[in-house]
Amino acid sequence: MIREDAQSRNFGPLATATAEVVLEAPPSPVVDRDEVASARVERPLGWVAATSVPTAAGLLIIALAYNAARDEVSWARGLFWLGMILSFAPTAIGLVHPGPRRVERLGMVALLGLTGYGIKALYSPLRFNLTDEMQHLRSINDMISTGHLFTFNPILQVSPLYPGLEIVTNALVSVTGLPVFAAGNIVLATAHLLLVLALFLFYERVGHSARLAGVATLVYVANPNYVYLDGQFAYETLGLGLMAVVLYAAVARRTPAGRRSVGLLAAAVLAIGALIVTHHFTQFVLAAFLVAWAICTVGVALIQRRAGLTQAYVNGLQEASSVAALAAVCLVAGVFWLVEVAGAVVDYLGPNFVIGLVQLYQLITNPGALQARVPFRDGTQQTAPFGEQMIAYASILLVIIALPFGLRLLWQRHRFDGLAVMLAAAGVAYPLSLPLRLVPDGIATAGRLPEFLYIGLGFVAALAICWIRPARLPTAVWVAGMGGAAVVLLLGGPLVGWGPPGRLPGGYVVSSDARSVQPEGLAAAGFARDVLGPNQFIAADRFDALMMGSYGEQHVLDVSNGHVDASRVFLSPTLDGAVRFLIRASAMNYAVVDWRLTQGLPAAGMYYENTEPGAFQHTTPVDPQALAKFDQEPDISRVYDSGNISIYDVGLIRDAQ
Amino acid sequence: MRSDLLDLSILIGIVVVAQLTQASALIAATPVRIVVGIPLALFAPGYALVSAAWPSVRPHWPKRITLALGVSVSVDILVGLVLNLTGQGLRPSTWTFALGAITLVACAVAAVRRPHVRWFTFGRPRPASFVAGAGAAGFVLAAAVVATAGAAAHEQQDGFTQMWIRPDATDSSSANVTLRNLELAPMSYHVQILDDNGQVTLDIPDIALDPGQTWQTAVTIDPSSSGAVNAVAYIGSDTTPYRRVRLVTPSPQG
User: Fold this and answer.
1) DSSP-assigned states of every residue in A600-626
2) How big is the A-B interface in CB pairs under 8 Å?
3) Minimal C-alpha gap between B51 and chain A (Å)
């Protein structure tokens, strides 16, 4: 049985003191938590109730800060950070504190996980307006209208090939009658709850401590992608929850009783099956985790055999075979899905990883050939406030500092656990991935890794946070310090993972994710859907294209779906032969001109495509004369005008011989 | 009814009511459909299957709830793949039937396998905990209301007018010019229709539109010759074009 941490603090004789630190003993590991007496009455959730009030009040302050930002009030940013601190601090301190019982830690973990999601949900309270969300919105809308899967999605081809999130949302829409936005948010909240609960149970099994599990989950929630990227209506959000379920079921099967449990095996296989059709990258990472876990376990078992620990060797091999079997299921099913259904994902994912590594190599070997990316700076060359940068760097520094201490403890207490060794390797990989953020396209690689590497980092850092304290420092002071550090971690994560221009909502900003999604663009998309009709071949700038493709149900032409770089149609000073050829070759019906692109630099670095001339290096806005060319051509109709947005019918050029 | 089957009984009740919402439009229009639909999609199938797989009180409730959520989501996804193969596909009726059937069958297995023991027993929350929980829920609700109201109000700050021109789908010699007021206040427009040479062929001096209102007029085009029809909207008596659209008609030869 895993003991309550409050009891474990009495394990004085087991503590080992050094000159610098005291290594506090974790509770003694036991076989199976399920041996807990069934009829035990859980106490009221005192810590949860106490932390929930300030946490919820923090969310209210964040909502007020968002509104202040929309009104361009100068103190909105300060209010936002006050709300963030109030949202995270109570649960951070509660989880670090040795006092709460297991059930209270579970409650606080759930609270923390949902709070992280709530910050994003309050950011977009009316509709899905982030890039990935609009891409998946198209898939769910197609699914609802057709009643079937795999309808082509012009704004993200691979989305309908991994329809897990949309299927669950479709189920909820169907049985409740709720709108897609409401149902999607309920699914997202469920996914976050599933993720943090399953992770808690996973860490508890590995570390034999509810306190360690709570802190490890807290560190995980502090990963740069948890609040925003994985708060989106996007397939990875649900994929992570399913991955955590598999990890938990796998670790629960390490015991003899667990291996005999058909239910656990079925749950793991079901979750793997669901993950295979939910998110490509998460399934690959899960397979890699399971393979690495099995290899590490075999390695440890061989070492134990050489030490004469025959039973441990046998147990290790049994565990490794059990994990390897799940890895095999994941790999075989994943490859089958990839080959039979989702072959397009290779072209989609492959370049992202290769180009980042190639550029990093170039930066190291030939620094002059490549301009390094400056962290916390957007496409308009504006940088995040100094204080935010400091918090972000501090959060990275804290986990890097915690790593060696955690690794030392891991070596002392868990080195004969192959899973713990695998987690350590994942944790160490995180700081090694950070240099990728310094090359222009490296963020496409490094930006996808934290939510996975933090699974290991969370465990290693939690070892340090829970079981180490300076010898002469009172426990209360140390816990307070660790609580403060945990808050910095939680605040810094979103700063690392989300650029400054879109952090707060507000008025229109050129090429800036949700800030570019405003009523006028949505109205144009509505016009296209209702008046022009769905699935017209349309070219537009990046964010008008997303609105046209999702809310407007149009077939947007871009590099990813038809290898059409429509930026040339807009940026070319004249409608010359090459542009006319491109219109004909792409069968373009309409071109959407957003005149606001002439008023500012793109926060995302590009107006139309990553491949457009000057992408990520723009120093001047789009030339108004280049866009005005559409009005000067005798064979182009200007069919729509709402002031900032015009839509041109280029059908006569398309149909010309 | 056995008291230790209370949880399974609730699941069965959810399935029955969900089926009723499919059968009765009257019930479907009430919040009951939402109240039973959320657990039916996200919790009931998994909980029932976990109960069938683990008939004893083990695993304890944190693990049981986590697995119930995970298995429910997984079942949804895999059922969705199966429904996709059916002629009807993923529709409210097929979803309700499939999830209900899985839940009922799993409940039946769980009920048969379950020993007669006490099931979940929770301590009575202290009043302070209850008050704190209610307070937290109140704050969250307030945050949701504040965020939604603030975002909606912000969207009302910047109004605009849409104008468009489209050939009449039923009459090749006609096109429709439409004006929609999405400004924040009632607007008065002046619209001119011009031919290819800039000559005004139609002048409509005073078009009053309230916010959200749409105005449309038909203009004549000559399908036998190429050319263009222009429409320009002005605000009130202003002479600066506010919106302008143009429809080019192709030459008859194509």
Assistant:
1) S--TTS-SS-TTSTTTT---S---HHH
2) 307
3) 10
The Cα of A350 is separated from the nearest Cα of chain B by a number of Å equal to 26
In whole angstroms, give the CA distance from residue A228 to residue A192: 12
Contacts of B189 (CB under 8 A, 6+ apart): B161, B179, B181, B207, B208, B209, B215, B233, B234, B235, B236, B242
Task: Sort out which chain B residues have CB atoms less than 8 A from A506's CB and list them.
Answer: 154
Question: Sign of dihedral through CA atoms A135, A139, A145, A146?
Answer: positive
**What pLDDT is attached to residue A257?**
85
- The CA-atom distances, in angstroms, between A18 and each of A14, A126, A467, A468 are 13, 56, 13, 11
pLDDT at B254 (0 to 100) = 47
| Cα A430 from Cα A447, distance rounded (Å) | 11
The interface predicted TM-score (ipTM) is 0.93
Interface contact A520-B158, CB threshold 8 A: yes
The percent of residues above 90 in pLDDT, for chain A, comes to: 72
Distance from CA of B34 to the nearest CA of A (A): 4
What confidence tens digit (pLDDT) does each residue in A280-338 have?
999 999 999 999 999 999 999 999 999 888 999 999 999 999 999 999 999 999 999 99
Q: Determine the 3-state secondary structure of A589 from DSSP.
A: coil
Model pLDDT, residue A23: 54
pLDDT at A38: 35
Report the pLDDT averaged over residues B211-236: 89
Classified as helix, coil or strand, B231 is strand
Are β-strands B174-182 and A637-641 bridged in parallel, bridged antiparallel, or unpaired?
unpaired
Give the range among B4-13, B52-61, B178-187 with minimum mean pLDDT: B52-61
Chain A interface includes B56 (CB < 8 A):
yes
Give, rounded to a whole angstrom, the gap between the first and last alpha carbons of chain A. 79
Q: Which residue of B has its CA nearest to A105?
A: B62
Q: Which tens digit of pLDDT belongs to each residue from B153-206? A: 998 888 999 999 999 988 888 999 999 999 999 999 999 999 888 889 999 999
Please tell me the distance from the alpha carbon of residue A319 to that of residue A315, in angstroms, as a whole number.
Answer: 6
Q: Which of B35, B40, B42, B181 to mutate to test the interface with A (most CBs of A within 10 A)?
A: B42
Q: What is the pLDDT of residue A16?
A: 42
What is chain B's mean pLDDT, rounded? 90
Query: What is the per-residue pLDDT for A2?
Result: 39
Spatial distance between the Cα atoms of B239 and B2, rounded to a whole number of angstroms: 82
Contact A448, A480 (CB under 8 A): no
CB contact under 8 A, B60 and A164: no
| Count of other CB atoms within 10 angstroms of residue B169 | 8
CA–CA separation, A413 vs B31, rounded Å? 53
B116 and chain A in contact, CB less than 8 A: no
- Shortest distance between the Cα of B220 and any Cα of chain A, in A, equals 16
- Using only the alpha carbons of chain B, give its radius of gyration: 31
Task: Return the DSSP state at A531.
Answer: I
Q: Which residue stretches of chain A have pLDDT < 50?
A: 1-19, 28-42
- Residue A369's pLDDT is 66
Q: Cβ contact (<8 Å) for B162 and A642?
A: yes
- Can you list the positions of beta strands (E) in A129-274? none
How many CB atoms are closer than 10 A to CB A203?
Answer: 29
**Average of per-residue pLDDT across B227-249:** 93
- Given this model, what pLDDT does residue A365 score? 79
Give the integer Cα–Cα distance in Å for A260 and A128. 44
List CB contacts of A216: < 8 A, sequence separation 6 or more: A199, A203, A207, A458, A459, A461, A462
Rounded to 5°, the CA angle A224-A61-A218 comes to 35
